[in-house]
Amino acid sequence: MQSIISIKGIEKTYAGGFRALKGVDLDIRRGEIFALLGPNGAGKTTLISIICGLVNATAGSISVDGHDIVRNYRQARATIGLVPQELHTDAFERVRDTVAFSRGLFGHAPDAALVERILRDLTLWDKRDAQIKELSGGMKRRVMIAKALAHEPRILFLDEPTAGVDVELRRDMWGLVRALRDTGVTIILTTHYIEEAEEMADRVGVINNGELVLVEDTSALMKKLGTKELTVLLAEPLAALPPELADWRLELNADGRELRYVFDRHADRTGIPSLLARLRDLGIAFTDLNTRQSSLEDIFVSLVSDRRPA
Ligand SMILES: Nc1ncnc2c1ncn2[C@@H]1O[C@H](COP(=O)(O)OP(=O)(O)OP(=O)(O)O)[C@@H](O)[C@H]1O
Known about the structure:
With about 300 residues, the chain is of the alpha/beta class. Helices cover about 30% and strands about 30% of the residues. The protein folds into two domains: about 5-225, P-loop containing nucleotide triphosphate hydrolases (Rossmann fold, 3-Layer(aba) Sandwich), CATH 3.40.50.300; about 225-295, Alpha-L RNA-binding motif (Alpha-Beta Plaits). It has a six-stranded mixed beta sheet, sandwiched between helices. It has a four-stranded antiparallel beta sheet with strand order 2-1-4-5. A four-stranded antiparallel beta sheet has the order 12-13-11-14. The longest helix is centred in the middle third of the chain and has 16 residues, at about 165-180. Bound molecules: adenosine-5'-triphosphate. Adenosine-5'-triphosphate (ATP) binds near residues 16, 38, 42, 43 and 46. The site of adenosine-5'-triphosphate has 12 residues, from helix 1. Keywords: ATP-binding, Nucleotide-binding, Transport. This is ABC transporter ATP-binding protein. Pfam families: ABC_tran.
């Protein structure tokens, strides 16, 4: 495994004494899309800010493409593009100028052809002479990405890339991020949208209360933890689960009107036909059946709720 970012024992205690990160170890693989998931205040932005050199860690070390972020700050920072959560660009600046300016900040010679390519890739070329204030929210976000790409970074951080963006724009953004990855850029994104991680990320890291509680391939995680659920709506309520149904892992809800059956969606036999046959034999009538697949969201909620401090 070739890692492009190596994070070792990162701790962060803010000036007020708040411990925002508690010994985070993480390796980011070259060329992957890595999603960092976590509830509000989990420490995602703190971690990204430390990697990008905007916040100092209290302890631990990080190397980015072989450069220590403290000792070789400039080299490390030069390999990183950061798209922050909030837009901060002068409202009166023009799109092309602001992107060209970002490149200059890193000491690179002007490159009009590169700026043009970036703007075209982000479908901003038509807006190249527009002022930032004249753009829609989605366009502004793309301008922030263009600015982050202007110095040709190998790594791109996207902090909540689709927060507050409508579904269609979110899909566009996903396409864009994939296209960037296809050009060899390693992408780390933070998100509250589980669907986003599920859809896009090669690997997922879950951070909660300053601790990285899980890092896993997205597909393996879904396979390992993904279950399916069948709900049987009963015609008449049951007072208790009949012992004849003990072969299935069933739960009866509080009013006795719903049977819930959780099964492994990868199992050869789900046990559903036999369960339904047994219900019929027992004379238990039902009015409806629903199935539901657990999503990364369920997995995430269960992980995070299990670890809430008492
Ligand atoms: N400058 C600061 N001084 C003190 N505490 C801070 C500071 N910045 C962040 N924190 C605290 O550190 C914790 C982690 O914040 P952080 O912004 O990293 O969370 P996050 O996971 O990015 O959350 P969100 O999803 O809401 O953006 C929070 O409890 C926050 O209040």
